[in-house]
Amino acid sequence: MEPPLQQQPPPPSPRAATILGKYQLIRLLGRGSFAKVYQARSLVDGATVAVKIIDKSKTVNAGMEPRIIREIDAMRRLHHHPNILKIHEVMATKTKIHLIVEYAAGGELFARISRRGRLSESTARRYFQQLVSALRFCHRNGVAHRDLKPQNLLLDGDGNLKVSDFGLSALPEQLKNGLLHTACGTPAYTAPEILRRSGGYDGSKADAWSCGLILFVFVAGYFPFDDTNIPAMCKKISRRDYQFPEWISKPVRFVIHKLLDPNPETRMSLESLFGNAWFKKSLNPETAEGNTFGWDSAFHGKCGCYEGMSGSSGVSAFDIISMSSGLDLTRLFETTLDGGCRREKRFSSSARVEAVEEKVKEVGGVLGFKVEVGKSNGAIALVKGKVTLVFELFQIVPDELLLVALKVVEGALEFEEHHWGYWKDGLEDVVLSWHNQES
Ligand code: AMP
């Protein structure tokens, strides 16, 4: 067992920045494309937390707001498992979103591997058990991660694994693939069926493949499909073309081989790992048990089919419409926006995605708006002078029901309220029902 990891932060200087009067920032932990992550201290109870600060203007420009909504939704629903990073609070200002999450004092697991080299088989097994337990919990609750990669595996102060960033867990394929290639520079941690982009796939099976790859890196200390040429690497992945170093034991080879099966139909499932002798050894009862149905009851059922694992819908479009007020995840961001009423309209639609997008562009064009963001980003920005409207589209039941939001994100003062009337008339053909009619 490795010694516990404790990085005691220096006390913050008296001039350290405070956000929203509640958290004092201590130091920058890392940065992603849209967010900076800080270690911070709560001024209320002194607890150490991590604060992810997301610049709304950047996310809106890049059509990322739906991604953030999904990340928060997935994290909130899954926060009862000990190996999933907890989300404590979400706060929004006009320009920024602050996610207050559990602080992982041990940092990135893979940074440790690159510093100290490969893990012993027993240490690798312990982290692997925690990873698989966390994912099984997600899958049982209808969410697949689908973006497992080194940066997403953090360690807490006691050396326990924490899976973070469900940001891509529910993204449309186009955006997901785009992000994987640009953000990571390599599709290496992605299951072959996702790389093939051949229609739908089972997210839990894709996660099982990524787990096989992660286990290989744990015990080998290097990546199995390394190739500077991406098409060549993809070929290796789809042929299961890798070499085990001689120190890897037979039972570990067996598990990796079964998980890295390019065919999702015959690939070993994470559930079945709990019956595997190597995996079960020294399995902590809490990890074995996981937490089967832990999420907030308020979310349970309502979002179970929300772009989760393919083929797991089980709720009809009409069920969704009847409870659609409960699906208003966007309210998370509207604490400073007049309750979001005057500046946002939402409607459900049973039309095709393309038809809704075309209609929005058409009505926007008539009202003098220019389209600034393409549909592959999952959101469309419409700009006219100082006013920016963002149009977001969520597939609640794939091919059956969409939830669409039209928001004024900039230039609220200049926005002409009577324009809502034109939008409503113009979109009539694709609207099933409006969800904030009263405003
Ligand atoms: P992200 O934008 O979530 O990928 O975060 C960027 C980097 O910040 C990560 O790769 C980690 O090194 C670090 N980080 C993110 N979240 C946390 C956290 N909760 N605790 C400690 N470090 C974190």
UniProtKB/TrEMBL annotation:
Residues 310-334 form the NAF domain. It is an enzyme of class 2 (transferase). CDD domains: CIPK_C (cd12195). Signal peptide: none annotated. It comes from the Eukaryota. GO terms for biological process: signal transduction. Transmembrane segments: none annotated. InterPro entries: Kinase-like_dom_sf, NAF/FISL_domain, NAF_dom, Prot_kinase_dom, Protein_kinase_ATP_BS, Ser/Thr_kinase_AS. It catalyses: L-threonyl-[protein] + ATP = O-phospho-L-threonyl-[protein] + ADP + H(+); L-seryl-[protein] + ATP = O-phospho-L-seryl-[protein] + ADP + H(+). The keyword ATP-binding applies. Gene3D superfamilies: Kinase associated domain 1, KA1, Transferase(Phosphotransferase) domain 1. Keywords: ATP-binding, Kinase, Manganese, Nucleotide-binding, Serine/threonine-protein kinase, Transferase. PROSITE patterns: NAF (PS50816), PROTEIN_KINASE_ATP (PS00107), PROTEIN_KINASE_DOM (PS50011), PROTEIN_KINASE_ST (PS00108). Its cofactor is Mn(2+). This is non-specific serine/threonine protein kinase. It comes from Psophocarpus tetragonolobus (Winged bean).
